[in-house]
């Protein structure tokens, strides 16, 4: 009987240790051995304190009171202990027994459950926070979860969806959930209408598979109106990039002179209207810059800006370039025909530069376009309506061209709606300082230079020159000077300046050249040396003006020809002029 009892006790998972009333161990089953890593042979008959430290069994012997469900650590294992006295029938304490249960596994399981809970919470928070509308159904197609984005998009709440068939939200189209549950495969890009407002959406869905079995389906729907809005924005962005072809705005027009300011103000007013603008001014005054600025300040700024240099395109091609052609219009015409520049600029602006160069034939066609607001392609019979703002520019005297019957008067009236005259650079010397500063900043960046100032004589030279090529020539001149300057020089002096193109000589220009050369002189500041240098440079300048004609130069200088030769020889001998190596 005792053996059988021991067998039963050994087979239980609970560890058991019993002691007699003298604290000696009387029972130590197999589970106790596993838990304490002490063999029953070592334990039995020993005082319990020797075998198990901090045991409370002796306390139980004394008090006779049970201690139940006590959690404690034993060799890194969490156990639950029940300790009870062993009582005789008449209540006498015969010993005590402790039963331990290893609960590590249970704790691990509990931890896993807690973790799973956390994962679930995180997943739920993510699903709720996402802007995509999500719905989940079970294997029978019954709604189990929707997120707030879904409610926002469809108008349906938990009440309408959870526990209901997955087709309840559909206004038009097949349920993606049902398709997924049927095929077990993901579905993509289905267009449907959902909700009471029949919202257009794109849906995609995927199966939820657990252990190889389809347990449900999860779907994401995207609002097509949002997608369309994204396309619209993309399109607008493309247009903005395209309109960067007109890259300048009024802020890029540098100058503070009253005469330029007047032109800018007039252009700004014109920009707000659809009126045809004609920009008049010499070459390089900034007519194209103005055309860009007008386009970019108008409500057509997101549409195309098309520049046509009427002088650069072959007269035979110009018509088909401007108005396009139909397929088979002429030998060599591309298949499908070609869109003309007017059509390309539809909704935007066409800038016809050098309009004075148009042939009378093309002038007649252009007049028709301006009057009818439609184009007729070469070889075509059906006119195409167009909405284009026309800006033209010219540096030729159109009025004279009309008198000479090179330009049509009726076209002139059509084009001359808002004439804007852009003054030549020599008419606005006040702008020079600002322009030079602006150009130096620009070339500092482009060429990696660090020029901070220009010497007074440079400005003097610049202001004394005629600038027949206007701002373009000034740009070129400063750019070349900036190449001449070394990396760490911060003062631009006359030494850095390139030769100015001769143009039509005038006295100011001559003085400028003299000043430029004087700055090339060395450190000899004696009056004799400087006066002699001035004399030499002045003679050279006058000679240059008279294209080397010595008689005319001597006459202009008020000296005899003999004196001129004498002076030139003498001055060349006497003057040691330090030349800038870079120039
Ligand atoms: N006021 C200004 N401020 C800054 N840059 C200017 C100004 N005027 C002209 N420019 C610059 O000078 C150069 C020539 O200008 P633009 O091409 O506009 O002149 P244009 O009058 O159209 O010349 P063309 O008649 O030869 O075609 C351009 O690089 C332009 O940016």
TrEMBL record:
<dbReference type="InterPro" id="IPR003593">
    <property type="entry name" value="AAA+_ATPase"/>
</dbReference>
<dbReference type="InterPro" id="IPR025944">
    <property type="entry name" value="Sigma_54_int_dom_CS"/>
</dbReference>
<keyword id="KW-0175">Coiled coil</keyword>
<dbReference type="InterPro" id="IPR009057">
    <property type="entry name" value="Homeodomain-like_sf"/>
</dbReference>
<dbReference type="Pfam" id="PF00158">
    <property type="entry name" value="Sigma54_activat"/>
</dbReference>
<dbReference type="InterPro" id="IPR002078">
    <property type="entry name" value="Sigma_54_int"/>
</dbReference>
<feature type="domain" description="PAS">
    <location>
        <begin position="1"/>
        <end position="46"/>
    </location>
</feature>
<dbReference type="InterPro" id="IPR035965">
    <property type="entry name" value="PAS-like_dom_sf"/>
</dbReference>
<dbReference type="Pfam" id="PF02954">
    <property type="entry name" value="HTH_8"/>
</dbReference>
<feature type="coiled-coil region">
    <location>
        <begin position="106"/>
        <end position="133"/>
    </location>
</feature>
<dbReference type="InterPro" id="IPR058031">
    <property type="entry name" value="AAA_lid_NorR"/>
</dbReference>
<feature type="domain" description="Sigma-54 factor interaction">
    <location>
        <begin position="253"/>
        <end position="483"/>
    </location>
</feature>
<dbReference type="InterPro" id="IPR000014">
    <property type="entry name" value="PAS"/>
</dbReference>
<dbReference type="InterPro" id="IPR025943">
    <property type="entry name" value="Sigma_54_int_dom_ATP-bd_2"/>
</dbReference>
<protein>
    <submittedName>
        <fullName>Sigma-54-dependent transcriptional regulator</fullName>
    </submittedName>
</protein>
<dbReference type="Pfam" id="PF25601">
    <property type="entry name" value="AAA_lid_14"/>
</dbReference>
<dbReference type="InterPro" id="IPR002197">
    <property type="entry name" value="HTH_Fis"/>
</dbReference>
<dbReference type="InterPro" id="IPR013767">
    <property type="entry name" value="PAS_fold"/>
</dbReference>
<dbReference type="Pfam" id="PF00989">
    <property type="entry name" value="PAS"/>
</dbReference>
<dbReference type="InterPro" id="IPR025662">
    <property type="entry name" value="Sigma_54_int_dom_ATP-bd_1"/>
</dbReference>
<feature type="domain" description="PAS">
    <location>
        <begin position="119"/>
        <end position="175"/>
    </location>
</feature>
<keyword id="KW-0804">Transcription</keyword>
<keyword id="KW-0067">ATP-binding</keyword>
<dbReference type="InterPro" id="IPR027417">
    <property type="entry name" value="P-loop_NTPase"/>
</dbReference>
<keyword id="KW-0238">DNA-binding</keyword>
<keyword id="KW-0547">Nucleotide-binding</keyword>
<keyword id="KW-0805">Transcription regulation</keyword>
